[in-house]
Every structure is written in C-alpha cells, then in structure tokens.
Amino acid sequence: xxxxxxxxxxxxxxxxxxxxxxxxxxxxxxxxxxxxxxxxxxxxxxxxx
Length: 49
What we know:
This protein is mainly β. It is 0% helix and 61% strand.
C-alpha cells in the first residue's frame, strides 16, 4: 500500500528528500517543511511525480 515519493523544494525546485506515504489514507500531495541544503533554510517541500 505504501508508495515511495520524492519531495522537491518550492523555492529552488531541487529534489532533496524521498519518503513513503500510504495512498489510501493520504490522497492529496504532501507538503512538509524541511531544511533545503541548497537554499540554506527551512522551506516547504512538495511531493513530485
């Protein structure tokens, strides 16, 4: 049931993180505030394809 997804920074569009999510429970795209090593600050990372 769990699917591997990648998270991309909304500021610089770098794909920094990969994680898993349960598609049956979470149908919308994930948005998580994480640290971006390219920007050097905490930004919102959104799920990409």
